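User: Could you check the structure of this?
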Amino acid sequence: MSTVYPFAAIRYNTATGTDLSARISPPYDILSEADKQALLARDSRNFVKIDLPHTPPKSAGPREAYAASRTQLDAWLADGTMIRDSAPGLYVYHQHYTYGGTQYVRRMFFARLRLEPFGSGSVYPHEQTFGGPKEDRLCLTKACEANLSPIFGLYPDAENLVAVELDAACQGKPLATGTLDGIESRLWAVNDPGTLVEVEQLMRDKPTFIADGHHRYGTGLLYRDWLTQEHGELREDHPANCVLCVFCAMEDPGLLILPTHRVLAGVTIDASLFRNDPEIEVRELSATDPSAVISELGGHGPQAFACWSAADQKYVALRPTNPDVLK
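Assistant: Sure, the predicted structure tokens are below.
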């Protein structure tokens, strides 16, 4: 059961203009110091100034770096750069983008997700987490007392009932917009009580699979436990019992999953290595360039992937002989 709640967001003030293109940034954990400075050169009030106080964010940085983020957040709230919404709501988030000549819209929404330890409920991870990145995020959370970036959660919804319900409630102009790296973002706030209750109920019987943000989710658990140690048992509705999450249905037409590319440096592999493995089926591909490989690979089934063999200068398709191997 995924327990979601509305919340009153802290966000950029869009009273004088909804375009936030110069103030949005990619996820903090893919940015270098040079990336951060390039974003701040576009606009000194880009959110990266708060969300990435220390680089690289793979371990805890100096305490003053996180204190500076809190000082900046307070200053932007004081001067009106940012505001806190007065009413709780769910925040509908659409990403418009083009791939392969086709336009897509990925439909999502922001909500609070109730924390639960992995393995004890309906929130599922898919990767291992490490202490260093969580130390960085925990220092930032303690300083700012806020969730500054969400985890990305997927949920099953074959009929896209949640998205349909939310889309019906936000037909007007977006609250905020922004374009970055060719992707246009649009945001609406949904405050209608009936819609909020309906979405909470629709999500109640659905699991949440963390697609991205495992360290942020783990940080949420650590922060909640730290507060409990410092102040005693938290009340049931304490904000630290939840983590900010952006939700997307697995069946959403805009949730496009693309191939990923990995290079093994200093490793020589030829197809014979795989042909000697009874659990792997090997097929030579006729393609001679990467884009053609992707096209040809589509005819080899959903579990196939391509490998370039530097030893014999060929592409081959590999797939398991047992389709249930991942189980």
